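Extended Data, record Alpha-ketoacid dehydrogenase subunit beta
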Amino acid sequence: MATTTTRTLPLAKALNESLRKALDTDPKVLIMGEDVGKLGGVFRITDGLQKDFGEGRVIDTPLAESGIIGTAIGLALRGYRPVAEIQFDGFVFPAYDQIVTQLAKMHARALGKVKLPVVVRIPYGGGIGAVEHHSESPEALFAHVAGLKVVSPSNASDAYWMLQQAIASDDPVIFFEPKRRYWDKGEVDTEAIPGPLHQAAVAREGTDLTLVAYGPMVKTCLEAAAAAEEEGRSLEVVDLRSISPIDFDTVQASVEKTGRLVVVHEAPVFFGSGAELAARITERCFYHLEAPVLRVGGFHAPYPPARLEEEYLPNLDRVLEAVDRALAY
């Protein structure tokens, strides 16, 4: 039963409400990025925030990603908690140097004396018919870098709470937002007590096989589980939520129950986050596995033009095909 503090919100609006709450709670929180102020962001995630909190708290920046992150690092060193928006996933690479050589390593270089509470928000993934450089899934590049936390919500409630937890963290957090799910609605209890930021969640219980996904692919896996149920198959869906660190314990507990694992993500399968999950779970659950761990993801090719993206992105049929292969052992 919904409480009086529960509202039905699109994921995008949940992020907006989360940022508003963070700005209101802590005067050291700042938002910065291209068009985040007067426009409210290209996806309107920051809509109305500059009007209510002023240009000194919600800052329109030049089109210079390296400058955005470099400035955020300087602000964090002076005690602020900047939330930097990268307008689209493919635009993050001019700032990659600042993120991996400065932001990720400053805490270690300072032997723990310097903290860098910076959140880098990145809308990512495909499915919206965008042009080149607007549909990338680069999460594995950041998960590979020690010193960065990497998370991605799949629903409105997690979007609301995980973003606030990321802002409150003293470590730098790369916050990947599944842009194709921005308009998906869900219930958000703004007075709830959230679970740990880096803990996975069982989104649907099952007994025959475990599907693990995060961000935009969680909905696809839930749809696959519903379709499989019509054929008498019981699939458990685990929402990873955090890509670095990974909650291997929750995945292990599920696989020990089901004996089979299929990992799904939009990013290319080759050297993707699914490879790390497959290796770790094979080590941990070798005597429980009834089939090899299988992976479903994008192809090892540049993201195609929008007209072809539905052929590139993992879909219901590709997930169910992997389920069939796993269950055939």
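Summary. The first helix runs from residue 11 to 25.
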